[in-house]
Amino acid sequence: xxxxxxxxxxxxxxxxxxxxxxxxxAEILNQLExxxxxxxxxxxxxxxxxxxxxxxxxxxxxxxxxxxxxxAAHLPGVIAAMxxxxxxxxxxxxxxxxxxxxxxxxxxPPGIPVATVALNGSRNSAILAAQMIATGDExxxxxLIAFKDELKNKIVEANNELAQVKYPFKTN
Length: 172
Fold this sequence. Notes:
Blueprint: E1 9-13, H1 19-31, E2 36-40, H2 47-56, E3 64-70, H3 75-81, E4 87-92, H4 99-106, E5 115-116, H5 122-134, H6 138-163
Parallel strand pairs: 1-2, 1-3, 3-4, 4-5
């Protein structure tokens, strides 16, 4: 743990059973050197703690909240209702092929937006959080540009490798 840094992103999950999915967000934030915190809070089992967290996040310097939940998936919306900070929802595939969590996070009422990424899309949630923060941070923007270039280079390399694959009727 890095001492002295204040978190800019808060990763919240409904339970630690979401950690295998949400570790992808932590890996991206860590790679981009964005200080973050991770906590488990439940909209249904710990509503008082969720309220305390959501109402206090802005005052603690949090810039973006990534909230993951499966099944009824109310956590991202409940947090969004109580904070001015952008909330990114990560639906977790826990039941009903994940459709319950996708729809619960996606269908928010007017005035309570939650940016929703793909099912189990924690890596994209972290990239989106970084992009939000980078609008006011040129050093982070440079890291994101390099990150995106690296993604492009991986595809170029993959195509070079595919060019070496031979089949009698393959034309390239």
